[in-house]
Amino acid sequence: MADVRLTQIKKAFGKVEVLHGITLDIPSGEFISLLGASGCGKTTLLRIVAGLEGVTSGTVELAGRDVTALPPEKRDIAMMFQSYALLPHLSVSENVRFPLRMRRIGSREEQAEKVRDALETVQLGHLADRKPTQLSGGQQQRVALARAIVSRPSVLLLDEPLSNLDARLREDMQVELIEIHKRLGLTTIFVTHDQEEALSLSDRIVLLNGGNVEQQGAPSEIYTNPASGYVSNFLGAANLLPAVISETGDTLSARLEDGQSLPLSSDESRRGAATLALRQEDVILCPEGEGQIVGEIGTRIYLGARNRYVVHVAGTEIRVLAGTETVFEDGSRVGLTVDPARIRALPQS
Amino acid sequence: MSDRAENTLLVLPGLLLLALAFFVPITQMLVLSVSGENGPTLDHFTRFLGDPYYLNVLWRTVRLSLIITVICAAVGFPLAYIMARVGPRLRLWLIVLVILPLMTSVVVRTFGWMVLLSRSGLVPQVLRDLGLAERNFSIMQTELAIVIGMVQVLLPFMTLSILGVVTRIDRRLEEAARTMGCTFMQTLRTVVFPLAVPGIVAGSLLVFTLSASSFVTPNLLGGSRIQVLAASIYRSVTQTLDWPFAAAQAVILFAGILLILVPYARLAGGRSNG
After folding, report:
1. CB distance from B170 to chain A under 8 Å?
2. CATH number of A2-224
3. Does this complex have an ipTM over 0.90?
């Protein structure tokens, strides 16, 4: 276990700078997610921690030691690749033993013991003698995980390890990752573009955008208090509505572009032109006339337990999650209500 | 038409060519090798196998071919790895560079080596000037000359065979090995090399057969004193006009290559699959 400290990391490929000075402190034992759209530099940052990529400037410290100039094999890390990167000419148990063999950890017997333990952890003990090509995607994934944790590295790096799995397997693996992290307490850096994965797995999320840290914080904090339109948009849950916030007497309200207005909580400090972020589960649909504002149903998408509606409000499309007990027809006019305390006002975007 | 019939039709031209250009002459050669004045005989074979001179020629052919194959593999593997890992532009140039020798005739290339290696040539001269060789030193008409000349001719076959396999090795595997504690050289040994084995095997088969049956380069660089089997066959055909004996030598060369290659291909193929 060790802490990771990145200081002013800059990285350029040729003339294109992809990381613009990223500083991150990751305390020992933390599970941190680097979240962002493709091309935001999250994988590059992970590869820099691994030593597979050099930096243009800045320093990487593992456990208080500057490792910026060290090659990957001299860093006490393990990495799990999106494509698993199992060695096809070695059996499952030889694959898992590989890091122990190369790093000369323990005697032959101890290594065999550790390999057995790691394979048991991922419930693959019975497949030890197979070749990786004889395994399913989910099994290969587990082998890769076993191989990553077998040497008890100081830092575990995961590069979108779940993105090639189908939905059910992915949920199983998420649970497994959380449990393994709890048990071993490895400092873990997890790269993903899937906001749900990041929200459910991590102690802390670092949201990257265009080579900069857009926001970082605990999942609940980042979800409830997105710092910008980009963040709330990326977290996928929010609708963004342009509005002008003004005060009349004691009440604060936001006027939408078509003149309708929504009451805001009096805690809101922002005034003037702004962007309102409304999460899709916080908007309540009701018959026209009963709501605070009025919109028109565009499309209904049936999700099983819930319906998702696309609603036209003030010239913008918003998404609303609603129960299935009342169904609103396409094209009908509906009222919308939002708890003022649940509306976030963000800088105009 | 059924799939089977279509497949047969597709394979037919190749089969015909093979039958005409390969099986017919081989059969003729086999027949010729056992023909004597009074019906079938094994005299030609006993003459070859009973004569230390010819056994020596056979042994030299096999030995030199093995040496050439090993050198080609040792040079070709790192070369192919570098070619697979550099950018596409540089790779193109390297491929051109490797193939370039194949674009000139064998004879011209071999004369080039004669100029370089003969007593007054560049290489012995430099060695003499450096005090590393005696006054009469020459590389011409030695086995070394044959090896040097043949390695240059056959290196492209080895390199391109390995290149085809190495380019298909996922780079992530090497990166994964590095994160698991391998140095660069250990990665080459434990990851790249085992996965490149099929290419090395294919290249070795090509290089070994081509060098065992080659004639021009060994003949010109080795001279008449250092004979290889192909040259000996040529002499029997053109100088002593002993066609049955030439055919017997050809059969021995053919059988010898098969005897070495079949177990090798099986061994290596079995390892890379299993």
Report:
1. yes
2. 3.40.50.300
3. no
